[in-house]
Design goal:
Low-confidence stretches: 1-19
Helix content: 10-25%
Oligomer: single chain
Largest sheet: 13 strands, antiparallel
Number of helices: 5
Order of helices and strands: HHHEEEEEEHHEEEEEEE
Strand content: 35-45%
Shape: globular
Distance between the termini: 68 Å
Structural class: alpha+beta
Length: 256
């Protein structure tokens, strides 16, 4: 049976595209990830203040879900991952409020982790940092001492995806799902003390006057159960954030 020429050409184009994608190495995929995220604007952003709202479900229990109408993250991006991708790096603070009621505040000042009551004991700090930090592995994946490995392709929420695993100099491994069409990071996964942690990223948008691409929605899962659903409504990069922002304790007010 004869096939129309247009259909044959489309089929051929699809085969060529698939063959081209199949030939990409893990390193080439990561290079495209960096470019798609904004290139230099993303790699050298320095800081990011993200504002939005979130639904938080402790232990994935629907009865324990609360809605934070004010959810703010302050991030100073790291310049290195001295202790691995899943240890505290750079600086970080996260405030969750429902109206005027504080749900929680957590922070990392570059050396110590905190909640609203002050510095955390070492065991709790290590557990919290292991869950909070991991995405930066893809930022540093092309640097000396890091290894990247391409794994079998799959899908993330129905979108065809490459999968690459990043091993940092400490031996820590982080798995990333990469959109085959746009090269956005669709998922990141790693082992924590709380279980197998996965984040899914979607609803991407580019910032005004910048090539920086921000995921508008981020969902957190532990052992397959969703615990956090965040909508980042805005992001502001490159602005200085005072060091005092990242130190918490009694009497310290919300930074926003």
């Amino acid at each position: 049976m004869k096939r129309p020429l247009a259909a044959c050409l489309l089929a051929l184009a699809a085969l060529v595209s698939t063959a081209g994608a199949a030939e990409l190495t893990a390193r080439e995929i990561v290079e495209r990830v960096h470019a798609a995220a904004g290139g230099k604007a993303w790699l050298e952003a320095g800081t990011n203040v993200m504002r939005g709202d979130a639904t938080l479900c402790r232990d994935g229990d629907p009865a324990k879900c609360v809605y934070a109408d004010r959810y703010v993250m302050y991030r100073v991006y790291p310049t290195e991952l001295a202790h691995g991708a899943h240890a505290g790096s750079g600086k970080f603070r996260l405030d969750a409020y429902s109206g005027d009621k504080r749900i929680f505040e957590v922070a990392f000042d570059g050396e110590r982790s905190y909640d609203q009551n002050g510095p955390l004991p070492p065991e709790r700090a290590m557990s919290d940092e292991m869950s909070a930090f991991g995405f930066s592995a893809i930022r540093f994946a092309l640097q000396s001492g890091f290894e990247v490995e391409r794994l079998s392709d799959d899908e993330v929420e129905g979108r065809p995806a490459f999968f690459v695993r990043v091993k940092d100099p400490s031996g820590t491994r982080t798995l990333f799902g990469i959109d085959k069409e746009h090269f956005y990071v669709l998922s990141a996964q790693w082992q924590t003390t709380k279980g197998w942690h996965m984040r899914q990223y979607s609803e991407f948008y580019q910032l005004v006057d910048s090539r920086f691409v921000q995921p508008g929605r981020v969902r957190h899962y532990y052992d397959g159960v969703k615990s956090v659903d965040i909508h980042w409504r805005s992001a502001e990069i490159g602005k200085p954030i005072p060091d005092s922002t990242f130190v918490l304790g009694p009497g310290v007010k919300s930074a926003d």
